[in-house]
Amino acid sequence: MKRTMRNRVMAVAAVGGLGLLAAGGAFAASSNNLIVGSTFIQPAFNTWCVHIGHSFCTDAGGGSGAGINAFKNDTADWEATDAPLLPTDNTGFVKSAGFRYFVTAVGGVAVPTNFSGEKKAIKLDGGTLASIFDGKITKWNAKQITALNPGVKFPNSTIVECVRGDSSGTSFVFSNYLARVNGTFAHVVGPASKKPAWKGTVTSFGTGSGLEASCVKGTSNSIGYVELATTIGTNKFLSLLGHKYKGKIYWTGPSSAALTAASVVASKEHGVSLTNASAIQNGLLNTPSASSYPIAATTFLLAYGNYSHLTAHGGGASQWAAVKKFINYAISVKGQNLLPGIHFAKLPPAWVRLDQAQEKTVTP
Known about the structure:
- The chain is of the alpha/beta class.
- About 40% of the residues lie in helices and about 20% in strands.
- The chain contains 17 helices and 14 strands.
- The strands form three sheets. A six-stranded mixed beta sheet has the order 2-1-3-14-4-10, sandwiched between helices. A five-stranded mixed beta sheet has the order 8-7-9-5-11, with helices on one face.
């Protein structure tokens, strides 16, 4: 079922994770399955790995770009990305074996802030956020920010944007949201991207959600965008985001309940399928609901369409068996019930059925 040690070392090295090998020899001593990719979903994946038991899997993270690269080369047991595959990704094993998307949870991109004198979470709407990250708004006491937060004293300080330095699915989700709510952002920075050309005062901070959360915590007058389950344990203030519903503006912070509200609306209003990943992600943004969080997203577990000719992991059928076991646990009642406690939302029942139908299209 598992790759050779040489391939395992190569896969971990590709995401900068050789420290995992050195620290206690976890991979060397275990034959568990290796996951590479999205750090957005990593807290959920590692929770499921633990609950499945018997050292079944370990999520090395690395970012969605690293996950896609590993998927092209079949150097991990399975991979994950928040950004759909591009036509240019149709190479290597993606081209020869085909691919399938699976969804396992709904998460959120929070907007932590850290400015001088901050005492509570502030309000920001999509247009104002976009103007910060496209460089139009550069000071914390800009009129666009103060108008949304009467009574809050903001410093006359330059806003520092903590952004991901890797090829990031979280960057893709966040830039997708900003580009969809603000045409100027789409023109100046561009459409959704795993490595957007952010404008303004930017500090690029390494790989993964954890490092960006630390960047905001440790950098005065900063703002960032971080997956909720990671930022909630690191950053004190998470912005309330404004969104319109039936002519009224609502201000909602990131929470499992607000993500659930977004996913319920998305599953009912969009006739999506797992062959159209972009429609799923777009449908989770700015959902029409008074209680939904505007930047909700899912992650796509990447599987091959045909495992019959794969040999790197001890045989294609056994590799698919491991992937299928993980998916089935993740979408089970037991697996889904773990999500609210780690700040994710459960899948809508209709999306669980999509996964179950998708499994039947895979050739072992």
